[in-house]
Amino acid sequence: MTEQQMEDLFHFYGHEDLYKRFKTPLYVTGLLDDSEAEHLEDFFDHFTLERSILFDEFRFWFRYFEVSKRGMDGTSPYCP
């Protein structure tokens, strides 16, 4: 996912403040680099994020969500 897509989705879901705080850690860690925009949308649809959330907490819950979406055979609905 591109940086612009990330920014747009954070803004669309009302998390502008989080994006401002997480922009650099997202870039450095590459957390969303290999994710599709639909995956982040799905995450935002299912999780309520507090304004005070730390990046490490966000990363944990995002990874948790990623793993929970994988099938028993290790496949993901986000990867063909």
Q: What structural class results from the helix and strand content?
A: mainly alpha
Mean pLDDT: 89
Termini separation? 16 Å
Rounded radius of gyration (Å): 12 Å
Number of strands: 0
Q: What overall geometry do the principal axes of the alpha carbons give?
A: globular
* Helicity level: 55-70%
The SSE order reads HHHH
Beta content comes to under 5%
Task: Note the total helix count.
Answer: 4
Q: Sketch the major β-sheet.
A: none
Query: Low-confidence stretches at least 5 residues in length (pLDDT < 50)?
Result: none
Molecular structure report:
By secondary structure, the protein is mostly helical. Helices cover 61% and strands 0% of the residues. The chain has four helices and no strands. It has helices at 3-12, 16-29, 37-46, 55-69. Helix 1 (3-12) runs antiparallel to helix 2. It is globular, with a radius of gyration of 12 Å. The chain starts with a helix and ends in an 11-residue tail after the last helix. The mean pLDDT is 89.
Outline of the structure:
This protein is mainly α and 80 residues long. The protein has four helices and no strands.
SSE inventory with pairings:
Elements: H1 3-12, H2 16-29, H3 37-46, H4 55-69
Helix pairs in contact: 1-2
List keywords for this structure.
about 80 residues
